[in-house]
Write a sequence for this structure.
């Protein structure tokens, strides 16, 4: 399998050293993000930094409230950091743009007034990156890659949730963005469909080797989908650890190492709660 | 577990597995609908049926009453309608009315577009639209007619003025509400593709808010149509080339009650046609096709 070969390449320290001098594609440096609710100013992340290299499957993992989705919105350009910088291929990110295509969790991200093919072509045409003929060809190719050729002229409301997400992924990938941003894209799917989608995403990665920044709150999904995992702690989001998970896929799910890593992350995320409880207990007794 | 009385435990049943699934008893799993089911599925058929029942009731009650001056029968009214159409008077009246209506309707929509653009782009624009809508929406357009006559005199401009007033607020209010209810995801999708300004409004906001915009257009149409007829009743009096309202007024003065009914029927028929042909076609090709409306 192509991915297994690529994995061993990265895992091998000798070739790994050769890969390192590559410039990071995305650099997030000391980023603090804040947003306003009706009567609060919430600090979502505090001085978070990480680097994503080309062809990384970089996962942001953490419990709810760790600012992982906010961080993704920051990278997408929907939010400006109050502190620190986000730069993509040396260019400062200051607004949303089609070089960072986003796949959302919600099923309503497809434009309901366009067919599957038109949806996939839409960003290619509006951004002026491709001519109409190229857009049609590329749309057909990517729709085929996500196995939806039969539905190319269907409207989004005729598709199931999993199909809609596949269209959204095809739409994002057909643009060949510098980086693909995925905000819990499989969270709203049922367990069986989710697993199928994860497999399909990994297969596509084998095929095209895109760079993806993936947000999830599932430890299992992070280990399977990701090649590198950034663990965030909540309230506000801070970097807890950065781990490698490129050696694991669905096949290794029952393996001892997989279980070991998943327990390690689990402990990391729950240590916070134990500390919180201890602090709370001290507050009560002291 | 040992403490639980055995009577409270569910019995343990044997497992089984069906090797051959049989659905022979149902017959065909997919069956074509019968002719009757298919005919009653057509909206037009059901609507025409209702119309026929209403016309029958009219005919029956009017024959029983037997007073053509107060309440002519359906057949008499239709005869009058046919005569007026054949004479060409009614056609003229309809054309006059529709022309004025279209001018007012399109001007009203254009002004509504300006107001909503202001309202989505600035906060003061939002306040302006909300305040003006709250002030003028409840004000019947016909109440402005005396003022319009004073300002613009007898003629088309006065009619256009009151029609604009009746269309503008309904359309502006609905479009604005529609824009506000466009989902955050779709907004972000549009921005993600680098859409900004007019491009963003035309390619994302307008189609996404189309169900609301369409209902605004429908309400605006109904308001303007009824305002027009009412206004013509008032002021066709001194105008030679009046519209449908004037036709009704004239025939009442001549005590041709069947023709009055013919005029009213024409008003209703045009209303039905616009609603069920123009707007329905627009709906089937947009919001229904997109699954935004059933």
């Amino acid at each position: 399998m192509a991915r297994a070969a690529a994995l061993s390449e990265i895992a091998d320290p000798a070739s790994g050293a050769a890969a390192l001098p590559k410039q990071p594609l995305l650099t997030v440096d000391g980023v603090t993000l804040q947003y306003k609710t009706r009567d609060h100013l919430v600090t979502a992340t505090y001085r978070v930094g990480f680097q994503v290299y080309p062809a990384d499957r970089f996962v942001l993992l953490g419990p709810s409230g760790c600012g992982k989705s906010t961080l993704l919105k920051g990278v997408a350009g929907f939010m400006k950091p109050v502190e620190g910088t986000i730069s993509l291929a040396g260019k400062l990110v200051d607004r949303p743009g089609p070089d960072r295509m986003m796949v959302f969790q919600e099923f309503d991200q497809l434009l309901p007034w366009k067919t599957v093919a038109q949806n996939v072509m839409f960003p290619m045409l509006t951004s002026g990156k491709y001519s109409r003929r190229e857009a049609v060809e590329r749309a057909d190719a990517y729709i085929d890659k996500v196995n939806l050729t039969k539905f190319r002229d269907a409207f989004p409301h005729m598709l199931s949730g999993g199909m809609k997400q596949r269209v959204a992924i095809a739409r994002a990938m057909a643009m060949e963005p510098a980086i693909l941003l995925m905000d819990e894209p499989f969270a709203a799917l049922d367990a069986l469909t989710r697993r199928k989608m994860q497999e399909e995403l990994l297969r596509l990665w084998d095929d095209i080797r895109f760079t993806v920044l993936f947000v999830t709150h599932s430890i299992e999904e992070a280990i399977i989908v990701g090649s590198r995992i950034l663990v965030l702690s909540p309230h506000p989001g801070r970097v807890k650890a950065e781990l490698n998970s490129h050696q694991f896929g669905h096949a290794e799910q029952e393996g001892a190492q997989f279980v070991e890593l998943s327990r390690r992350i689990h402990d990391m995320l729950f240590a916070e709660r134990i500390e919180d409880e201890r602090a709370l207990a001290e507050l009560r007794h002291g | 577990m040992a403490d639980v009385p055995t009577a409270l435990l569910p019995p343990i049943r044997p497992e089984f597995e069906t090797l051959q699934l049989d659905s022979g008893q149902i017959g065909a799993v997919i069956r074509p609908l019968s002719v009757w089911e298919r005919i009653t599925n057509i909206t037009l058929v059901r609507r025409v049926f209702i119309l026929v029942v209403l016309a029958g009731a009219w005919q029956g009650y009017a024959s029983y009453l037997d007073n053509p001056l107060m309440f002519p029968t359906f057949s008499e009214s239709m005869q009058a309608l046919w005569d007026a159409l054949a004479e060409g008077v009614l056609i003229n009246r309809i054309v006059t009315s529709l022309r004025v209506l279209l001018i007012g309707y399109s001007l009203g929509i254009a002004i509504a577009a300006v107001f909503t653009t202001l309202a989505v782009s600035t906060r003061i624009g939002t306040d302006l639209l909300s305040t003006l809508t709250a002030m003028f929406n409840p004000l019947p357009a016909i109440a402005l007619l005396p003022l319009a006559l004073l300002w613009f005199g007898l003629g088309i401009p006065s009619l256009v003025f009151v029609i604009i007033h009746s269309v503008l607020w309904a359309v502006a209010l609905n479009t604005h509400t529609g824009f506000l209810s466009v989902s955050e995801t779709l907004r972000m999708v549009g921005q993600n593709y680098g859409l900004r300004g007019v491009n963003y409004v035309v390619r994302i906001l307008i189609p996404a808010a189309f169900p609301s915009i369409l209902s605004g257009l429908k309400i605006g149409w109904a308001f303007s149509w009824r305002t027009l007829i009412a206004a013509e009743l008032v002021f066709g009096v001194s105008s030679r080339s009046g519209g449908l309202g004037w036709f009704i007024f004239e025939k009442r003065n001549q005590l041709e009650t069947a023709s009055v009914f013919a005029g009213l029927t024409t008003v209703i028929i045009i209303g039905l046609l616009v609603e069920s042909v123009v707007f329905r076609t627009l709906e089937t090709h947009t919001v229904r096709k997109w699954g935004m409306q059933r």
Notes: The interface with chain A takes residues 183, 185-186, 188-189, 191-195, 199, 203-204, 207-208, 210, 286, 289-292 of chain B (CB under 8 Å).
